[in-house]
Amino acid sequence: MDHECARLLPAVCAVLADPRQPVADDTCLEKLLDWFKTVTEAESSLLLLQENPCLVELLSHVPNLQDVSSGVLSFSLRLAGIFAAQEDCFQYLQQVELLPGLFGAAGPLGQAVWAIPTVRSGWIQGLRSLAQHPSALCFLADHGAVDTIFSLQGDASLFVASAAGQLLVHILALSMEGRAEGHTCPQGGDWPMCAQKIVGHIEESLCSTDTPRVTQALNVLTTTFGRCQSLWTEVLWEQLSPLVARLLERDPVPAPHPLMDLLLCVARSPVLSSLDRGPWETAAQALSCLGPTQAGALALGVLKLQLCPQALRTQAFGVLLQPLACVLKATAQAPGLPGLLDGTSEDPAVVDALLSSKSSCAGLLCRTLAHLEELQPLPQRPSPWPQAPLLRAAVTILCLCDGSAAPSSSVGGRLCGTLAGCVRVQRAALDFLGTLSQGTGPQEQVTQVFAILLECLERPDSSPTVLKKAFQATLRWLLSSAGTPSCSGLGPRAALFLPELFPVLQKRLCNPCWEVRDSALEFLTHLSRHWGGQADFRHLLLQSEVPELTRQLLQDPESYVRASAVTAMGELSSRGLHGTLTNPEHPEAQQSLLPEFLHILSADSEGFPRRAVMQVFTEWLRGGHADVARDTERFVATVLQVVSQDLDWEVRAQGLELALVFLGQMLGQPGPHCPYTVALPKAVPASPLAEALGALCRVRLFEFAFRALFDCDRPVAQKSCDLLLFLRDKTTPYSSLWEAGGSPDSASVEAALQRWQAGEQGQPLGDLEPEAMLAALRSIDLEGLRGTLAQGSDHVEKSPQSLLRDMLATVGVLQENQADCY
């Protein structure tokens, strides 16, 4: 601890120990605790207390106060735990009889303040810090702390209850530390008394008829097996697994979710999964006993395991497929479900869940589809994967939702009524259908997929979120059906589907709902990006009204739509598809979008369209767009001039990205920055360098970058710093060429930069020569500036001295203006 902090600390402790003083807020107390943790990690806690007796006085005085605030008491409990974590300091605090007054029966446990959750939480956290050595275990046993922790597991505060369970796990692990180092492990009867007490409590809780107690025990076991991989956990599981299995014999099964979490945790443990009495038999029993919702989640967890018995995997996959099997059976036109899964039969519990209520049906189907969507891309998914039945199930569910399904039973009729217009299930089914595009299916089924997707897009009553999901699924199926695209044409399925799709896309671009227009524009952008160079796609697009409708949306009243329209038109323009062609052989006859985009950049009142314009301009410059290539310098100069006045920092940052692209084209591409490597600058011939620097001056890139270097928004300044460092590295080896005839006069530039740094950025730099620019560039400590920008804006105020002064200033202990206010 430095001298200034040691000088301020007694006054701070006096403030905290005085209930009449207004105590600093909880944030200050948390910062103070963080500081003490840092100090005790670097120094001896015992020495710290001996050199600062005010801390001991504070900890001994606070528990005896009648009107102590709950925040200060909680702080004191946690602070004592931090100090007692070191065993020699623990012994010292025991000698002065301080710890019993804080954590024993004489402490806050018997006081009215114990009713406040903050105090109970502080007591638990203090013990958690304290329990780091064997001496702490004796203290816990002597003062009945473990029994108090047991009671706090059922605390009304969920935070306190969770912390109590975590503390029990920590104490159990500390008790068993070092007792399983060899190949043998003592049996439960030979364990330390503290561990035996905790295990006995868990056993009692597992046998209890009180579901909350069962939940607490299961949570403690899950955390224990998740954190501890020592051999003693084998003995613990062997002892408790029969009690866990017995829970599955109850009706209903108590705490199904915590039970499922425990079984999966044990299955993932490399120590426990290989035991003779491992979790597999219990997991198989759970899959049979749990309800459809819990069983589905457990089945997914089992199928995601890297190592698992094949019989259990087969059972789990069957459980996961049960809801879809019921749906297919209820709507099948012919008996039987060939190809779904041999042995998959209808479960009455699943049927009940599907038919009991709309919310139950929708919840079960959504969870099932989400589980299968998560499982599909995994390498450990079941093989063979039933692609065809799953496609049929997804299409059938969408048909049930839009009312076009043909039920073959009373169950199917009830499902039609239950799922009709269910947006939640439609979204889940479309997501799953999009995931299935990664596989292959029979031609007839793929045709059905495109048909149902087109129907979803055409339906006038489709919700905006369903349409967005339908566009996304359609795109995935189009891309997968095309295989490897070629410039000569589309795939056969896409060639048949797109002529039907473009009229629908035109209608959606005119939809009164802005979310629908936005989704349609995003879909068009992706289509153009993938197929913009293919003749068949170009022909279909240019024969439609889509380009003109998209251009009209540049004036849409909704800013999100305008931004998406800018992105779409930028992509179309890059492909020469942004307008109807009077002569398809001469795409250059299309009207340029550059003036319209420049108008949006300078005049649009919302930031989203302006950001989109800058992203398009950057891509145009990077890709050599025709409108940019005609006069690149004029384009860059115009854009930078407009962007420099923009109030949106993201637009200014994107302007620096465009400047960096231009800089790379002039001097060579910048490589990835790594602070641990030093790379020699790549040589640029003197003549091209002179031409490039002249171009940079003409587009006023130096002025733009220097102004951004002192931007009030840190991301902009950081990006400018990186750009200028790249520019300096490229030009430094040739500085002698510029200074051969004498040092350039850069005094006026440096003076202007100093004014800009002080916030006076109204005056431009004027017409400057490359020599003066390079000299000014070398005069700036860019590395130091980058280090400053990397620091938090409050790095000065975060110092402990500032914190202590602020706490004292709150009660007027400091005089005049000695506090750091932030």
Please outline what is shown here.
With 822 residues, the chain is mainly alpha-helical.
CATH architecture of the domain at 1-143: Alpha Horseshoe
According to DSSP, the number of beta strands is 0
Q: Under CATH, the topology of the domain at 1-143 is which?
A: Leucine-rich Repeat Variant
Task: Give the end-to-end Cα distance, rounded to a whole number of Å.
Answer: 23 Å
Number of helices: 43
Radius of gyration: 35 Å
Uncertain regions: pLDDT < 50 for 5+ in a row? 333-339, 672-684, 814-822
CATH class of the domain at 1-143: Mainly Alpha
Overall body shape: flat
Report the portion of residues in β strands. under 5%
**Classification by helices and strands:** mainly alpha
Average pLDDT rating: 84
Q: In percent, how helical is the residue content?
A: 55-70%
Largest sheet: none
Quaternary structure state of the chains depicted: single chain
Family: Belongs to the BRAT1 family.
Pfam family, one: HEAT
Protein name: BRCA1 associated ATM activator 1
GO molecular function: ribonuclease inhibitor activity
Which key features would you list for this structure?
822 residues, disordered C terminus, Leucine-rich Repeat Variant, mainly alpha, flat, 0% strand
Protein topology:
Blueprint: H1 3-16, H2 26-42, H3 45-51, H4 53-61, H5 70-84, H6 87-95, H7 99-103, H8 117-130, H9 134-142, H10 145-152, H11 158-175, H12 193-206, H13 211-227, H14 232-247, H15 256-268, H16 280-289, H17 292-303, H18 310-331, H19 348-356, H20 358-375, H21 387-402, H22 410-419, H23 423-435, H24 443-458, H25 464-482, H26 492-509, H27 514-531, H28 535-543, H29 546-552, H30 559-574, H31 594-603, H32 607-623, H33 626-629, H34 632-643, H35 649-667, H36 686-698, H37 701-709, H38 714-731, H39 735-739, H40 747-757, H41 770-778, H42 782-790, H43 800-810
Helix pairs in contact: 1-4, 1-43, 2-5, 2-43, 3-6, 5-8, 8-11, 10-11, 11-12, 11-13, 12-13, 13-15, 15-16, 15-17, 16-17, 16-18, 17-18, 17-20, 18-20, 18-21, 18-22, 19-20, 20-23, 21-22, 21-23, 21-24, 23-25, 24-25, 24-26, 25-27, 26-28, 27-30, 30-32, 31-32, 32-35, 34-35, 35-38, 37-38, 38-42
Protein name: BRCA1 associated ATM activator 1
Family: Belongs to the BRAT1 family.
Pfam families: HEAT
